[in-house]
Amino acid sequence: MSANMKSQDINVARATEPSQVVGTTAWGASHYNGHDIKSRQLLFLVLGVATPMTPTLFILPPLSTAIIVTANLYSITPSASNRVGLIVAFYCTQFYLAEGNLIYSLIPRNVAGQTKKSTTLAMNFIDWAAGNMTAPQIFQAGDAPRHHKGFTAHFCLYALFNSFLILLRFLLVRRNLEKRRAAAEDISQDGSKGVWLRVLRPAMNKLSPRIPLLI
């Protein structure tokens, strides 16, 4: 019974900590990501480049934190003197979960139309589920107890994810610049041309110059 209670305590901690990380990061993104479209830097927040700070609060960037603690787990040999620090580092790897929710928040805000939103979210969920089925296979018994191959795969995934984030931001910024140029061209001296073009334009965020993409 004592062993079962200890196991339950560990499971409670493992379930509670990711929820707290996700909730705190979402709160920080909504409060410090700006109401002005030009100040919204969600992708930088995920990358950890733009770290929001106030005199009383410091929000840890989710992805950079996960990379740092993964490097600690990879390089530091476990011992009795550092086991507490390593278990804290292990829990901090859960910061990676926060970035997924922040990225998901871009989908309903940048995709117009309920059908397109539902399709995009469904495709992302299927990909996420496939990743969850595949990921445990990188931690093989033959690589125990340090699992260097598994953590190496983690670093490769971090690099790919960072590359995709930077590419996504570049793409969204470029599209927003095109939107602003298109909006300026739509407006004639009397304003009539711009009005009719906006009426006839499809209601898609990618095409509408009046709906900037959130980054």
TrEMBL record:
Q: Which domain of life does the protein's organism represent?
A: Eukaryota
User: What's in the keyword line of the UniProt record?
Assistant: Membrane, Transmembrane, Transmembrane helix, Transport
Membrane-crossing residue ranges in chain numbering? 42-64, 84-107, 119-139, 151-172
Q: Which InterPro entries match?
A: MFS_trans_sf
Annotated GO MF terms? cysteine transmembrane transporter activity
Signal peptide positions on this chain: none
Q: Where in the cell is it found?
A: Membrane
Q: How does it sit in the membrane?
A: Multi-pass membrane protein
This protein's GO cellular component annotations are: membrane
Q: Which SUPFAM superfamilies match?
A: MFS general substrate transporter (SSF103473)
Protein name according to UniProt: Transporter
- Which source organism? Colletotrichum spaethianum
